[in-house]
Amino acid sequence: MRYADDCNIYVQSAKAGRRVLASITQYLSRKLKLKVNESKSAVDRPWSVEFLGLLLQDTDRIGAK
Fold first, then answer.
1. Helical H runs in 11-55?
2. How many CB atoms lie within 10 A of CB 33?
3. What SS3 class is residue 3?
């Protein structure tokens, strides 16, 4: 089984985030045959999520945590 690697996608609103998450998940599973871990997938504010050891700050800078 192949897995999708770590990825962040940024959109303007939570509603758009939910829509994009659903369509990307469907694309990865059906077209690329990749498994998406639903428990690790989320729609959230960029500054609330740590990604690969980094945390986006609301000052638009990337800082190590």
1. 14-30
2. 9
3. strand
Check: CB of residue 29 under 8 Å from CB of residue 61. Answer: no
Reading the block at residue 7, the tokens are: 């990825």
What is the rounded distance in angstroms from the CA atom of residue 10 to the CA atom of residue 54? 15
- CA–chain centroid gap for 42, Å, is 6
**Residue 13 structure tokens:** 């609103």
Note the pTM of the prediction, 2 decimals: 0.70
Q: Average per-residue pLDDT in the chain? A: 82
Secondary structure letter of residue 32 according to DSSP? S
Q: Which sign does the torsion angle of CA 9, 57, 38, 5 carry?
A: positive
The rounded distance, in Å, linking the Cα atoms of 65 and 58 is 14
Backbone phi and psi for residue 17, each to the nearest 5 degrees, phi listed first: -60, -45
